[in-house]
Design brief:
1 helix, globular, four-stranded antiparallel beta sheet, Neuraminidase, single chain, mainly beta
């Protein structure tokens, strides 16, 4: 091959690589149950299965699992009420974690669904309510439960050890576990002796440790965690990525918006959330970006929140299409 052609070919490869960094997405409408007009995606598996909730004709909500092959499928709610459930997270094996109300007082119990069938995880000793919020590939589940007369505490559940109370930060009385990674590390939030609410990272080795608030903030929450141990969430008015128990990276806000919160982060340190009720994606390379600017123009969608992102960069959340609030799946186009 002549030298000039070789140079041209290499230059073309560079252009392709650069354009690949400007990530855009296709969008899939996940719809809603028959007769309903509302759904929202809360979790996305490595293969692109989505879980969340959808409302029915009578406005009851039920958990769903969606796949490209089978579409939207309802997950059973637990008896005797059997009228309300939410699917929060899904692992690579298709095991789903969430919760379902079991009486008319809207008391809920943590649940995992396998092959569509629910298993109740129970509560901490003496408790009456619990919710499961995250699950990893070892079927370890993070969530929160009350215990008798006490306020809810974060828990870690496994098939071998059942439900373990993770406690609170020193001096606190309330905590929630919101996400779990492959190492069994849990993120969430707790109050503490200083009267403030802090995001936390719990590890089997070090227990529950507070994550630093951004300057001037008196509240924070660790909403998502990746396998690197990075935690995404919010502190004060800003979406934050905690890369250690001493370091908080401020993601900022979308132009013209006054606040932001991140809900999830993948192993490439891409985070998603909302800013002023507008869905965003964030990375160190691009900063915070409005997802509405990264989907096909004139799609008819307005994306309001992004709740989960997998390692392939697929994102789910909720947006408005044709006057209805639907779950969506965004898939990167390289």
């Amino acid at each position: 091959m002549p030298k000039s052609n070789s140079i041209a070919l290499c230059f073309g490869i560079v252009l392709i690589a650069l354009s690949a960094d400007a990530q855009t997405y296709t969008i899939t409408d996940l719809g809603a149950f028959t007769g309903g007009t509302e759904s929202e995606g809360f979790g996305v598996s490595p293969s692109g299965q989505v879980v969340g909730y959808s409302r029915t004709t009578n406005y009851d909500a039920h958990g769903f699992i969606w796949s490209e092959r089978a579409g939207l499928r309802q997950l059973s709610s637990i008896p005797p009420q059997s009228d309300f459930g939410v699917a929060q997270a899904i692992n690579s094996k298709g095991v789903v974690a969430g919760w379902s109300d079991y009486n008319v007082l809207e008391a809920s119990l943590a649940v995992i669904w396998q092959h569509g069938a629910p298993t109740i995880l129970g509560t901490l000793p003496g408790g009456t309510l619990s919710q499961a919020m995250g699950i990893n590939d070892f079927d370890q589940v993070a969530g929160f439960s009350d215990s008798g007369s006490s306020e809810p505490h974060a828990f870690l559940w496994s098939r071998s050890q059942c439900m373990r109370d993770l406690g609170t930060l020193p001096g606190g009385y309330y905590s929630q576990g919101l996400a779990i990674n492959g190492q069994g590390e849990v993120s969430g939030y707790s109050n503490a002796a200083d009267g403030a609410w802090h995001a936390f990272l719990w590890t089997p080795t070090n227990g529950m440790q507070a994550l630093p608030n951004v300057a001037g903030a008196s509240s924070a929450s660790g909403n998502g965690i990746n396998d690197l141990g990075e935690v995404a969430g919010g502190s004060g008015s800003f979406a934050v990525l905690w890369t250690s128990t001493t370091s908080a990276e401020n993601m900022g806000v979308l132009p013209g918006q006054g606040w932001s919160t991140a809900f999830a982060v993948n192993d490439a340190s891409q985070a998603v959330g909302w800013s002023g009720f507008i869905a965003f994606v964030w990375s160190r390379a691009t900063g915070i970006q409005d997802l509405n600017s990264l989907i096909p123009p004139n799609s008819g969608w307005f994306l309001s929140t992004a709740n989960a992102i997998n390692n392939a960069g697929q994102i789910t959340g909720q947006g408005t299409i044709n006057g209805e609030s639907h779950a969506f799946l965004l898939t990167p186009v390289r």
